[in-house]
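Hello, quick one for you while I still have it in my head. I'm working through a protein record and want to make sense of it properly. Would you mind checking whether the tokens look sensible for this chain? I owe you a coffee for this, so here goes:
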Amino acid sequence: MATWSNFNLQNGASPLMEQIIFFHDHTLIILIMITILVGYLMMNLFFNKFINRFLLENQMIELIWTVIPAITLIFIALPSLRLLYLLDELNNPLITLKAIGHQWYWSYEYSDFNNIEFDSYMIPSNELNDNNFRLLDVDNRIILPMNNQIRILVTASDVIHSWTIPAMGVKVDANPGRLNQTNFFINRPGIFYGQCSEICGANHSFMPIVIESISIKNFINWINNY
């Protein structure tokens, strides 16, 4: 989860999020190079007292400042397109989880295991334990196994919501009457927090999401004991 004075992205908990962070760093380096170059040229223009009375046009410099930005955009576009296709790739999911957005809580269904269903509400501030996070913890966490491909189906029962887990690189809109799908792969154990990122009404900021990632053995025990 995000912590104080953390200006970077959260540590990725899935291969897709790691790829998103790599692309972010790649694009940021290009932007820094462009900013330095343009700033240097502008400073030269501000403080340069030399003029050329006979310079009316120069096709070579126009060609250069058209081709170089085009090449720069290609260096950004190709990794971006690769990442877009990777995010939509679905590869033999082990588990399908269904998330249904309500005003203002989430419902979850594990339809692969005797149709396990539960609602997930935010824990009120006056009921928090010492190890809970205010506005982020819920009474029923999503339990998922790590190192397995997971498919999630997202919809809503009333208004538009958005199921978002930053550490997974997952953000899926929940639209009434529509079923959206995405997938992720959790590569380490832990507890990962998210929130609804679509303004869905008065209590929009009070419908958090919590995923608890555990080993496949513990997950099977949880399923059997539910």
Q: What stands out?
A: The CA atoms of residues 1 and 193 lie 6 Å apart.
